Amino acid sequence: MSRSVWALGRVAGSVLTLAVLVWRLGTGPFLDGIRSVDGGALAAAAGILVLTTVCYAWRWKIVADGLGVDLTLPTAVAAYYRSLFLNVTLPGGVVGDVHRGVSHGRDVSDVGRGLRSVAWERFAGQVVQVLLTVVVLLALPSPVRSFMPLVAIAVVVAVLGIVLVARARPDGARSTWARLLGGAAGDIRDGLLSRRAWPGIALASLLVVVGHAATFLIAARTAGITAPPSRMVPIALLLMAAMVLPSVAGWGPREGVAAWVFGAAGLGAQRGVATAVVYGVMVLVATLLGAAVLVVAWFRRTRPPGRTQPPLRQRPSRV
């Protein structure tokens, strides 16, 4: 019941956000955003997504290797494309990640470890994104700059907490809490913070954030925004942080936060919604390669095994 209530609340929240935006701003910003999308923007988004997906897959491979789960880079890239497509087309934004973890876990006969590798990979990416966002928002002007010192302190405390958890060693007590803490600490040490893991994870996550920010800047230009990058990059990072919120295929919170932050920055709430719509369409089209991966995988599962050629009968020798 709780899952059903959560899913219903997520859908209702996204629909309510969009309804409020239509009520306050009208349908014009949404239609303007859709009409603004052109072939150049779509091609740029698809090209950037190729690079970011490879970085995603590389990060996942590093974490999986640290947890002792075999994963090749080509397999990771294909699975990540499929995951991204499912995330942007299905409610919740995590269905693709769950599917990716379960599928990989079945391939290696360890579903639990497959899911853990996906969870820690996503967690590591969020940590790097938060750190980079805090640094940029401290350095560049934005509507939330006055709050950033407190946010920075909170982030530092959270990172120290993660490090302390990684250093924790389970005692002799075998309670459920001790086992969970010991398992999390081992995963963080081996999958995220080992010397051969964290540099690659940090670099891959940094490139992913840069790729998404570049896609947003292209979306803003496509929607007619001419503000300089120094003004738009903080907005892009704020929008990327909002995309973590529960939504329906990415829609709802992104447009709501875009309307607020663009209005607070003096760029106009209508333009914020239009930019968010352009970004959403660009990302959706760019992830369509994941649909092709799904189709290919489905055909491979449903295709019957090839028939073996029956052995040729030998003619009886004549006497």
Helix-strand pattern, N to C? Answer: HHHHHHHHHHHHH
**Strand composition percent:** under 5%
Number of strands: 0
Unreliable runs: 307-319
* Main sheet attributes: strand count, strand direction, barrel closure: none
Structure report:
- The chain has 319 residues and is mainly α.
- It has one domain.
- It is 76% helix and 0% strand.
- Helix 3 crosses helix 4, helix 10 (229-242) packs antiparallel against helix 11 (253-264) and helix 11 (253-264) packs across helix 12 (269-286).
Topology:
Blueprint: H1 2-25, H2 28-36, H3 39-66, H4 73-89, H5 95-107, H6 111-139, H7 148-167, H8 176-192, H9 198-222, H10 229-242, H11 253-264, H12 269-286, H13 288-302
Helix pairs in contact: 1-11, 2-12, 3-4, 3-6, 3-8, 3-9, 3-12, 4-5, 4-13, 5-6, 6-7, 6-8, 6-9, 6-10, 7-8, 9-10, 9-12, 10-11, 11-12
Summary keywords:
mainly alpha; 319 residues; disordered C terminus; globular; single chain
At a glance:
The protein is mainly alpha-helical and 319 residues long. It is built from 13 helices and no strands.
